[in-house]
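**User:** I keep going back and forth on a fold encoding question. It is easy to fool oneself when nobody else works the same problem. Could you pick a protein and write out its sequence and tokenised fold? Could you put it straight underneath, so I can go through it closely?

**Assistant:**
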Amino acid sequence: MIRLDNNKYITIKTDAAATSEEPQYISAYDDIDSIGITITPGGEDGLLNGMTLVIAVSSPIGILYRNVKYLSVFNSDTVTRIITVSLTDGIFSRTMIEVSLDTNETLIYNDGAGWIVMSTQGQKGLGTSGYSGSSGFSGVIGFSGFSGISGFSGLDGIGTSGFSGFSGTSGQDGFIGSSGVSGFSGVIGTSGFSGYSGVSGLGLSGFSGQGISGFSGFDGATGTSGFSGFDGESGVSGFSGIDAIGESGFSGKSGFSGLGLSGFSGFSGTIGSTGTSGFSGVSGFSGNNGDKYSTTSITSFAIPILLDSVTFTVDTGLSWTVNQDCVVSSVASPSNYFDGTVTAYNSVTGDMTVQAKYIIGSGTFDDWTINLDGAVGVSGFSGQDGSTGSTGASGFSGYTGVSGFSGYTGVSGFSGIGTSGFSGSSAAAGYALTMTPTSKFSPADATTYYFGVPGGFNSAGTAAIADITTGAQAFRMYIPKTGTLTACVIWTKTYSANSSGENTSFYVLLNNTTAVTVTTTFNAWAGFTSVSNTALSQAVTAGDYVEMKVICPTWATNPTQCQVTATIYIATS
């Protein structure tokens, strides 16, 4: 398994520029959140760019893990190319595999099966076979009969199983080592390529019956499970001799569980007739005045940035206390407001201090209304569990591939658990912080932008906050541990028009005072581009905050629909 966290990605390059056409790549993966509740499939594809690194599997965003399920590189050039696949964390790069591909050959990685090379004649081994002991030639094994079609399985109840914890990243399987030199035994044909479901006669195994379980349905009746893939017939056994392990097929995905509907509530009973009114009682005494919170202010101030505090004057004698939540909104422009927590209120002078928690809009106003923020309501009752759906039919067994040759033992892959780093040579201790705006934007000429932690939503959960702005301090990334800023890597990508190539400057802005230069000559947003600087040296202290500062040039052609990501590395020893 290859697992990526939010600062790791996979790159591919060739040994030279294309003679006629660049090789093509395709990747597929599953994104999984840190507690295993949500699994989201995805993939990427495109062309290589000679000796320039191309990101074939990008880093996941936020708290996600990305499990790589499939990766292939097809040499569509007219000459042989050396393909290098590497795992990168933005600072260090490790070669995973490097192979020579002839024209029309494909390098393939399958999760659980490893790497193979396919030519137009079938699978090519990646290792050289070892020698067996001095046994005589074995007789040819007769063809095995076709296996029968499996019967349909009965209907099983489907319970909602808990998610298993995630295992760490396994190292790559090495090639099987060579045996001592002895007499030769009979040569065995290369193993059949694990193929797709339903194809027979090519030595391909079908999709196995189980893949990733579908999501559990919400309250209500559970729908039927999807059908398992069909298994093909058993293939021809190979000659005895040097044994090797054939490749497994892809695991198919189970269907999604259906969403059942909750039952209707019963109708209300008929309202009874109105009884005779009683005599009016004697009026009671007036009670004490209730708590009062609603108020106004004519103090002129600007909507604060996130987590900053602002002090203004409201009515005296109100019931406000520390730690109560409030909404502060402009009367003339109600779309500009902020939610906050009261940190101080003087009932004699009317002075109130509020720390901002959510910010919608901007601007300076002097016509404020202030009132309590709504409390969270009680959770409703859970609906009844739906009935269990029926299990899909079992598929047919596929052909068994011919056994291949045993290869030399390869170099062991990197071991790791969760987000641990690469095993091998020791490196200085430290940590990385990634700043990735979630929204696309179209930068303007000669304009300075700032970005940091991703934006969020307003208190109603209905509107996203723009997370790249022309004002500093809006999206601070706080330093959790004292150390030294030593490196920064930046990626940019356009989804519409590319820039005309003028230089863009990038800085790490510390505490809105110190601008640490990353680059002033970056051809940003000219497609998918990246730049790194590993020679930085800026001391930072726990509690400091950083943002990325971008100074745009005056372009001949402006880029549109752009995204940007920056990762900084803090060394702590």
